[in-house]
Design goal:
The chain is of the alpha+beta class. The protein contains five helices and ten strands.
């Protein structure tokens, strides 16, 4: 074999090797954030509420106009929840054990209070105190209770038409030292997804604030995510 031919073959082998290396580096076996090239790595579960949230943070976590579901708007202003109200009744004589502070807001649908919604956030000294209130809130009507399709917080329950109510959904969640109640009254029993979206959004806003971020999650975001 001539020296020129050997040189040509050697050059072609070198080009082929370089092409193979380039192709390998341009198309890695798995993208960042994936496993085995096709499975996305799950995001870490949100941390429970363990911080001593301020009154301002609790108020910011409550959904405002444009942050809740379509058609719903604030009825009045966001309020500071008194301790006895975290017992589940304004007529209660005292705050529940371990209560620290809370906030509440109410909403009307398309400018009418024929359909109303409510959010209550209650911060406690410990997770045990918050759990005691969560259990009291959700009650004992197990036949009316169901788990949200997308779990929320450490514990979560939806109650369809509790007590003697009609067309209503009450939702409860506990996350660390916080318990949250969402009530939607008037034509809501057939679709509890709205209560679930408001619960999830409120908790995630608290988590954002606990992490030193702005509260940006909306109920519409959560409802859209649940449909995916």
């Amino acid at each position: 074999m001539s020296r020129a031919r050997v040189t040509l073959i050697t050059a072609l082998v070198g080009v082929a090797a370089l092409t193979a290396c380039s192709s390998s580096s341009d198309n890695p076996a798995s993208e960042p954030g994936t496993q085995n090239g096709d499975k996305a790595v799950s995001a870490p579960a949100p941390k429970p509420i363990t911080a001593e949230l301020t009154q301002a943070q609790i108020t910011q976590a409550l959904l405002g106009d444009g942050e809740t579901l379509p058609g719903w708007s604030l009825h009045g202003d966001k309020s500071v929840t008194e301790g006895q109200y975290c017992n589940g009744s304004q007529e209660a004589d005292s705050a529940p054990a371990g209560w620290v502070r809370g906030g509440d807001s109410s909403y009307e649908y398309n400018g009418s209070t024929e359909n109303e919604a409510f959010i209550h956030i209650c911060l406690f000294k410990s997770a045990d105190d918050a759990r005691r209130q969560y259990m009291a809130w959700k009650g004992t009507e197990t036949s009316k209770q169901q788990k949200p399709k997308r779990p929320v917080g450490d514990e979560n329950t939806l109650v369809i038409n509790p007590g003697a109510s009609d067309d209503s959904v009450y939702g409860y969640v506990r996350s660390g030292k916080v318990s949250i109640e969402v009530r939607i009254e008037g034509g809501a029993a057939g679709d509890p997804s709205g209560a679930q979206a408001m619960l999830a959004a409120t908790l995630k806003r608290l988590q954002q604030l606990q992490d030193g971020k702005a509260a940006t999650v909306t109920a519409l975001d959560e409802q859209a995510a649940a449909r995916q």
